[in-house]
Hints:
The protein is 47% helix and 7% strand. The protein has helices at 8-27, 61-64, 75-80, 85-95, 99-107, 115-134, 148-157, and strands spanning 36-37, 44-45, 51-54, 70-73. The protein has a two-stranded antiparallel sheet. Strands 3-4 form a two-stranded antiparallel ribbon. Helix 1 (8-27) packs parallel to helix 6 (115-134).
Amino acid sequence: MPKKKRSNARQRAIKALDKEFSLFIRYRNLDEQGNAECYTCGKRDHPRSLQCGHFASRRYLSTRWHEDNCRVQCVGCNIYRQGEQYRFGRKLDAEDKGLADRILEQSQQKASYTITELERLTWQYKQRNERLINGEAFDDGGQRNRGGRATARRAAKRPVKRKVQKRQKKG
C-alpha cells in the first residue's frame, strides 16, 4: 500500500515553523559580538553558519519544536557527527538532572498538529524572533538574548564571512 502523501499546505506550514523555530534557537544565546556557540563542541560562529540541533530526532513531532530538545550546533556536530547525541545528553543532564531522559520519553508520545496549530506556532516564534532582534524581554519565561538589542540587530544584518581561496595564475 503506498504511503499517504502530506498536503502541500501542511508541508509549507511545517517548513515555515521549522525556519522560525531554528532562527529562535540560533539567535537566543548570542554573545556581545553577535556570535553563538555550538552546544556540543564550543565552536563560536555567526548564527547563520550554525544549525538548530535536536537531541531527540526531528522525526518525533512531540519534541521537534520543544525548546529543551534543541540547542545551537555547528554543521560538524549536527550533520557529520550525527548530533553528538551522547555529549548533547550529558550537557542537558548537567543543566537539569534527568532532562535527557524526559525528552527521550516525551519523544515517544504520539503528536499531531493541525495546519492551524502549526501556523499559530509559526506566528508565535516569529513574534519572539522580532522581540529578540529588538532586545525586548520575554513575558513567557523564554531565554533572553544575552548580547542585547544591538547585538541581535548586528547579527541579523551582518553578512557571513566565507573563506575564499585565491586562484593563482599559471604563467
